[in-house]
Design goal:
With 331 residues, the protein is α/β, with parallel strands linked by helices. The chain folds into two domains: 168 residues, 3-Layer(aba) Sandwich (Rossmann fold); 152 residues, N-(1-d-carboxylethyl)-l-norvaline Dehydrogenase, domain 2 (Orthogonal Bundle), CATH 1.10.1040. It contains 15 helices and twelve strands. Helix 9 crosses helix 10, helix 10 crosses helix 11 and helix 13 crosses helix 14.
Length: 331
């Protein structure tokens, strides 16, 4: 199987590095600034696994792959596929992006029955141009958000199972929405410009995270979306968090986030902001806002934090901690 990884930041580089160690024909589509360092030094994986690996890479595809692992930010999908479209006619595409909209964007370019929906539950931090910290392990969930029979799916499962725990989910929309909750709090450290551990060691910020989850859960529930368990992350975890008193929930949330990784963990939103790229906020907290608007429901907290992230993106200045807390009436 010829494999291409398009987008070799945090998540894409973990796929690229692990697949290059086990498979012979893997190619990474990277940004211009990554090309020379990867050629001269290879890809450097650090953290819970440590290895250097030589990779084949370029700034565009050179031949037709059988499988594309799409690991660009959701805002960059159309550009990435348009740039490489002459090589994608017969390819299957595995999406790895957060939120639930990536597959629908990809379906503008290839048939739905050639799209594999992926949910990535491991964590990584990209240090440009060619180093990635592998923060914590987690499975990869595969399925089809269009509920199609994707012929290559069993082969892809077998391929990835050599490097990751892989689960196939027949109905993946529910787990996809649950993954939105996993990422829902990335916005808080992104607004402040700090690590997850730094942000959520502050119980006041953990309280804000719980408030965002409470609002999101109510909107998802009233919109008729049925959440479904992820491996190691059951729906009951969210339900328990939003049903207990806020201060008690904040204490539990703070402890969980502090123990995620020994290395500082920077969420995907902040990683994009630090690289001067648009973040995926509109597809995480913004997805909650979209769902609320679609069903005539209020979403003031998630709308406010989404707007604050956009302000950081455009203004280049992070909010002070007290400024953020004051905006949400938390003392």
């Amino acid at each position: 199987m010829k494999i291409a990884v398009i987008g070799c930041g945090a998540i894409g580089s973990i796929f690229l590095g692990k697949l290059c160690r086990q498979a012979g024909d893997v190619f990474g589509v990277v940004r211009d600034y990554q090309k020379e360092p990867l050629f001269e030094q290879g890809l450097k994986i650090r953290g819970i696994e440590e290895f250097d690996v030589s990779v084949k890479s370029g700034t565009a595809l050179r031949e037709k792959p059988d499988l594309v692992i799409l690991a660009v930010k959701i805002n960059d999908i159309e550009e990435a596929l348009s740039r490489n479209k002459e090589y994608l006619k017969d390819a299957y595409i595995l999406t790895t992006e957060n939120g639930i909209r990536a597959d629908y964007i990809v379906s503008k370019f290839i048939p739905e029955e050639k799209i594999i929906t992926g949910i990535v539950l491991f964590g990584a931090t990209f240090s440009p141009p060619n180093t990635v910290t592998y923060n914590f392990q987690g499975p990869v969930v595969l399925g089809s958000i269009f509920e199609k029979n994707v012929g290559i799916l069993p082969a892809v499962k077998d391929l990835l199972a050599k490097s990751f725990d892989v689960v196939v989910e027949e109905s993946i929309k529910g787990p996809k929405y649950l993954k939105v909750f996993v990422n829902l709090n990335n916005c808080i450290p992104a607004v402040l410009g700090v690590s997850m551990q730094d942000a959520f060691s502050d119980l006041r910020l953990a309280r804000l995270a719980v408030m965002l989850n409470e609002e999101a859960y109510e909107i998802v529930d009233k919109s008729g979306v049925k959440l479904k368990d992820l491996p190691g992350y059951p729906v009951s975890r969210v339900e328990s968090l939003v049903s207990m008193p806020v201060d008690a929930a904040a204490g539990i949330f703070s402890q969980v986030m502090a123990s995620l990784s020994k290395e500082p963990l920077y969420g995907s939103i902040l990683q994009s902001i630090k690289r001067g790229r648009p973040s995926e906020i509109d597809y995480i907290n913004g997805e909650i806002v979209r769902l609320a608007e679609e069903n005539n429901l209020p979403a003031p907290l998630n709308k406010k934090i989404t707007d604050m992230v956009h302000k950081v993106e455009t203004g280049g200045k992070f909010f002070a901690r007290e400024e953020l807390l004051k905006a949400f009436g938390i003392s």
